[in-house]
Specification:
Elements lengths: L7 E6 L2 H9 L8 E4 L7 E4 L1 H4 L9 H7 L4 E3 L3 H16 L5 E5 L2 E5 L10 H16 L3 E6 L2 H8 L7 E3 L5 H6 L11 H9 L5 H5 L3 H8 L3 H7 L17 E11 L2 H22 L2 E11 L4 E8 L6 H13 L8 E12 L11 E3 L1
Helix pairs in contact: 4-5, 10-11, 12-13
Organism: Sphingobium rhizovicinum
Protein name: DNA polymerase IV
Enzyme class: transferase
């Protein structure tokens, strides 16, 4: 990396939960496995690379995953083990820098512009971190090395698994230009589809649109897309703030009006939310429903409990009741979201009864 620029590394563990399970149970090695629930309402938290060859992906319903891969083996998550391994990896990071921003148990940004060993090359640091992870945990990690967070994160996915990708400042614009816009962080599936309809499929296509065009079609997100298309990102690496909520929301291609379709989508969202809650070990007392209508008006409705919600069925039931209370909708819903707030630490003891207190 050239001198005078930030040196950012994004480390992403390879198929983290699945790799831990294959490490600890040799009989699973080389087999297509999924960590998560395999039942009718189960969801894939992550899967091995053997399963990914069949099209199985994270957040996919378990039933669909089984259809894609009939030999898929489901393994129950062991979050206490994943947290312990994550702590090992975090300790390795801290030997090089204190500027660490975890994104989840299996990935983090590191700013190594100034680092503890005094190593000038960020690429060398990334290689050493990966070597230590393999030696101390028996697992592999991929790394992206660049001058900002946006490109470092994209780069870490470039040569997976067990790879490194380095993007220097002089290469950033070209790296983004060749990237499908759907891969750019901050461009979700619905936005990617809108961009495609506007003739924007690559970073180069996005860069060719001026600010006025982007503002007309993407509103307040225009500035981010304009800068991202040019490889610009000034966000600092910093310790993640204390989590205040966990939520999942989804935008639909067609606005939903009918009760059956709305409830089905909310149930799916509740399954994905429960996976995130378990992954983060973030139990909340308040369940919050979010509805965005076709005219972009947003409403939220919530229900609080006497103790943190620790049952996926109770979570889904609370969400359904909040939704049903709003039916019939005055117009179609373009987005549904479900979340939990008023989070409690893991040491919080669950009270008996969990009596609902309507807000």
């Amino acid at each position: 990396m050239e001198s005078g620029v930030r040196k950012i590394i994004h480390i992403d563990m390879d198929a983290f939960y699945a790799s831990v399970e294959q490490r600890d149970d040799p009989s699973l090695r080389g087999l297509p496995i999924a960590v998560g629930g395999g039942g009718p309402r189960g969801v894939v938290a992550t899967c091995s690379y053997e399963a990914r060859k069949f099209g199985v992906r994270s957040a996919m319903p378990g039933a669909r995953a089984r259809r894609l891969c009939p030999d898929l083996l489901f393994v129950k998550p062991r979050f206490e083990v994943y947290r312990a391994v994550s702590a090992q990896v975090r300790d390795i990071f801290s030997r090089f820098t204190d500027m660490i921003q975890p994104l989840s148990l299996d990935e983090a940004y590191l700013d190594v512009t100034v680092n503890k060993p005094g190593i000038a090359s960020a690429t060398m640091i990334a290689q050493e971190i990966r070597r230590m992870i393999r030696a101390e945990t028996g697992l592999t990690a991929s790394a992206g090395v660049s001058y900002n967070k946006l490109i470092a994160k994209l780069a870490s996915d470039q040569n997976k698994p067990d790879g490194v990708c380095v993007v220097r400042p002089s290469e950033g614009a070209a790296f983004i230009a060749a990237m499908p816009v759907r891969r750019i962080h901050g461009v979700g599936p619905v936005t990617a589809q809108r961009m495609k309809e506007l003739g924007i499929e690559t970073g180069a296509d996005l860069r060719d649109r001026d600010m006025r065009f982007l503002q007309a079609h993407f509103g307040s997100s225009a500035d981010y897309y304009y800068r991202a298309a040019r490889g610009e990102d000034d966000r600092p690496v910093r310790e993640r703030q204390e989590r205040k909520s966990v939520s999942v929301e989804d935008t639909f291609f067609d606005d939903l009006v009918e009760q059956e379709a709305l409830v089905a989508e909310l149930d799916r969202i509740a399954v994905n939310l429960w996976t995130r809650i378990e992954r983060a070990q973030a139990w909340g007392r308040t369940v919050v429903l979010k509805i965005k209508f076709a005219d972009f008006r947003i409403i939220t409705r919530s229900r609080s409990f006497a103790a943190p919600v620790r049952s996926p069925d109770l979570l889904a039931q609370a969400g359904r009741e909040l939704l049903l209370a709003q039916l019939p909708l005055r117009m179609g819903a373009r987005l549904l979201g479900l979340g939990v707030h008023n989070l409690a630490g893991e040491e919080t003891q669950e009270a008996d009864g969990q009596l609902p207190l309507a807000l």
